Predict the structure.
Amino acid sequence: NATTSDSIKHSPELHQIQPVKLCVPPSGFIRKLPLHNKEARPSWDSPMQFVLACVSYAVGLGNVWRFPYLCQMHGGGGFLIPYLLMLFLEGIPLFCMELAIGQKMRLGSIGAWTAISPYLGGLGIASVVTSMYLCLYYNVINAWSFWYLFHSFQSVLPWAECPVNANRTGYLEECEVASPTQYFFYRETLNISSSIDENGGLHMGQALCLLLAWIIVYLFIVRGVKSTGMVVYFTATFPYVVLFIYLIRGVTLHGAWNGVKYMFTPKLEQLANPQTWINAATQIFFSLGLGFGSLIAFSSYNHHNNDFEKQAVVISLINSGTSVFASVVTFSIYGFKATFNYESCLERMRLLCLNAFDLSEESISAENVTAWISHLNITHPERFAAIASKIEHCSLEAELDTAVEGTGLAFIVYSEAIKNMPLSQLWSVLYFIMLLLLGMGSMLGNVTAIITPLADIKLLTRFLSSESINGLVCLLCLLLGFGFTSRSGSYWFTIFNEYAATLSLLFIVFIEVISVCYIYGLRRFERDIEDMLGHRPNWYWKVMWAVVSPLLLFSLFIFYIINYIQGGTPTYQAWDKDLVRSGFSNITVY
Amino acid sequence: MLAGVLLLIFLPPLVAKDLCKDSQDGFKVRLSIKTGLGDDAYEWNESEMFLFRSTLAYAMRKHSNQDTYTIDNILVCNDTQRVSFVFVVTSTDDPDQLIPKEQVELAVRQNKHRINNAFLLSDMTLEFMGIPPTLSAPIIYDTEPWLIVFGVVIGAVAVGIVALLMSTVSKKRRAKEKAAGLSEEDEGIVKENGTALSSLGRKEGVYNQAFSNDDRFTKL
């Protein structure tokens, strides 16, 4: 290269035409490598695979079971305002930042943060440990989905009816007091013990399903991004197909519009409640899966010039759009279930009145039950008093107001709605396949966050092939995960779900933003982005990264700490089958 | 004389009503025809009551294995608009004797499905107060259906994993053989920094900044 520049300098003809710009390539840019270079980093076959992998990771069970609950609690359609605001203030900037770090450093989370500053390696380790916790308990949900999926292949869904008692005169008492769907979840699926102290044994069916879940995860990640890249085409797109089918089925159900109308009527007074804004911020934060190191891992397999900025915006918008879409489906299902319960309640009251007063069947219809009840109360008070204890006040609003989130929504409320649909086996199979794909897609990201830093450790890769490392990680998580399949496993699940990742993630991402902006330096980061994308990030990104997102994260973190301190001893809800009236008792855990 | 004859004629029904009304051995029956059948509901009239009494007589016959029960042995009272009433069963030997409650209950439980079918109703819509319905026994499977589906899925996945691992092993073996044969052709192969060789197969090539016409690079 030096000789070329000399000859051009001294060549008069070229001087006359135009000045020639010479390029001096940075040293070591091109180097000769042996043909079978073990250090060549694998990469996605196309940018589309990367986008789909991120979508599959970010769109998970939280979009289906947490967002509709928040929407309902915080004023329906009005909740979209704080939600979208937080998306632009913290969601998209932080997402873009993690993608940038991974794509620039081309290493997993430990390597990437160590490259920024050797003292920050702990940040990467924190991400890996948090991902480990998540992997342990998240796959248990997939095990439950498998259990329900396999049990859908029966002529009568097992959660549609209570099992018959020993002398066949009636149904089991535990099932009578609760409902068949609750009984199936707590007794048959979990075989839950009455408190976290009673371990019970392993539930063999659950253990088998967990084994299957981990084997499938291993199958998806065994070859790293090569296998993951194939799988995400399916896991990212098929849930949308099912959601669309469910949308059509949902809005055509009787009473679905009650639910959708109820949900979308905005109650703007909720915006004055600070809890609304806090929940919107945390939902955006956790829904995008920031801080686990999965995004850094995924983008470390990108080409150097991949346009991650545009992809970050697209993926975040897809994630939020899916939340809204899923909540429309959920609310039409809610509406159907609430209407069904309301009409059953009216029917029960009608029969009660007919039987107690021996009136002919045509005299009371579902519409005038309430009128008749008050009429009978006035005209025959003594006879009415006999049945007064059994009279329920049937209200559609009360049914719609029962908001459920989490596993209760996914496994109890939804299955109750499904059992009342015609062709319930088909809808059940479709629904649980969708839950499985959402859960598996997120698991791919979580496990990739662990195996990518491990693959960067030269010591390990010298002795073990990548398939063995991946297998060992899956095996370890499986063995530890068996604890969640014991009879008290669901309580341990609740502990992990509420405390394992939440606080640590806020802290991790806060330190990430501070490190990138102030330790690494925002100017250096801008130059790196220009190197990758060809243009500098504009003022929106810089303001968010340097000022707004750190402030938001810090205030969320402080709020969580205050909540922990003020909350006192944590409590959990236990299912006690000896309690006659209600299944749940609040137990204090020490 | 006439009074005596009249008394004789009207006594049995009066006595019968007393037997039915005051008795401890009677059962209350409730039918919900409109609820059960909707638009196909039939009217409850004397003929339907006749059918009911005859099905009960049939049930008593089957239970006691005596062919002596007739429709006159079934006495009915307390008819209401709801379509509910009370019935008692008199003994075949002595019309004033009633069959005990437990016997009637057993007879009804044994033949409930026949009685239900005679009226096109079910256990929910044709209720005998005090006689719990016998629910159908749970189906016992040799192998639970869920285990079968589980077996199919885990088998398929296991086959997939084994196939993948074998193809990895065979690829590595082939690569090793090629390396042994082509080790002298190492020189002159140029790769860009760290990306896999396969990416160079793309048609548009790779943007190599070393040769870009960018202003920030050194000017002559």
Q: What stands out?
A: Residues 239 and 434 of chain A are 5 Å apart (CA to CA). Chain A has 26 helices and three strands. The first helix of chain A runs from residue 2 to 9. Chain A touches chain B through 64 residues (CB under 8 Å).
